[in-house]
């Protein structure tokens, strides 16, 4: 059970801010992870969860341990990164990928796909299944990135609790699945393991959206429910990075409740289905005065 | 007393009916924002539509990064936690459910307590679990006003009961007594 992380908040907000800033500085200066531009309310909530999980008395104690105990960083990253996901979460989105995006990609002899913030891999296996069923998989190079190494390791293994299988199977069917999800995993005791052939063209790699740069030219970028954790300037910067990673006409798929209204970089995208947060990168800008 | 900027309302089992009655009795000139977190299983559109039929104020789904708007009811979208930033804008997260709930009333209330301090009213209505109790304690600690539905008056008494036990309340009322009090606290 995860801790409630509420008992401490609200006692002295000003002191909290000072402590939180020191924690963020320590993460950046000592470990190179920059959380300064994350949305404050949920970042703070997760830092409090860490305080409770590790039975420290306050954020400063946590910061001290972060600076002096070299084994502590992975646990802090795990706590801050929220690798929460599901297979075929939001089935209508995966149905639209199947019915609208993949047919458009099928005209390309080689297809490059980047999923940013892949967590424990649930969505990458979902996408791989769609690609297999569309007969496109062998033409694809898929990059699945995250800044949480523990999550990436689990993503490679593709092992999940068996209790998820039922809901994920329903999602798969609702997303237009033609087989049975069970065809793609083997069940053992309390776990299911996804067919490892599904990742033969997947490269799992450590990539931090805050500090790392564009590394591929993709026809599809999937980044669902990651930008919601970023403040407006960081959201815009990462959106511009997706634009620069996409070929003109390339597809961008974001989380169902993400709002781009405040991001200037959103102007370089047009909506394919705005309610599903499916976009296409606009063709290279054409000068207004060109032609007749 | 600090002027009321926002009213946060939490409920689960029996919530839609109770919300419809409460929102239907609010003053249509209410300047404060109303933010609703309900676990009720019905689809989000249905909940917004149902509430819009009864509410005196316009009802919309809360949208991330948008300002928390006065004179409007804003409903938490399903399957995300809804938070309020100190800059009085909405934020979403898909962190794990808290005690099986996402959106969690605790998460909304504790963030709102930090954002508004004494300028907040928090209301716990009917519900079959203990979500909201810890959040209500945060609200009270920060100086906000806690209103809890009388357990006997609630379709499901567990949620108000848990809130009373953990956080206590400034006002423990029947559903029909709530709107007049909220109107009075907000309109003066
Ligand atoms: C909530 S999960 C989203 C999982 C999946 N896309 C979904 O919607 O179900 C967010 C993921 O983003 C990753 N993330 C957060 N900040 C990041 C950053 N700066 N760079 C790369 N990944 C990041 C987290 O580690 C986490 O795995």
UniProtKB/TrEMBL annotation, chain A:
Q: Which GO terms are recorded in the biological process aspect for this UniProt protein?
A: methylation
Indicate the segments annotated as coiled coil, or none if absent. Answer: none
Domain CheR-type methyltransferase residue range list: 8-282
Record keyword Ribonucleoprotein present: no
One GO molecular-function entry: methyltransferase activity
Keywords linked to the UniProt accession: Methyltransferase, Transferase
Full protein name: CheR family methyltransferase
Query: Which species is listed as the source?
Result: Rhodanobacter ginsenosidimutans
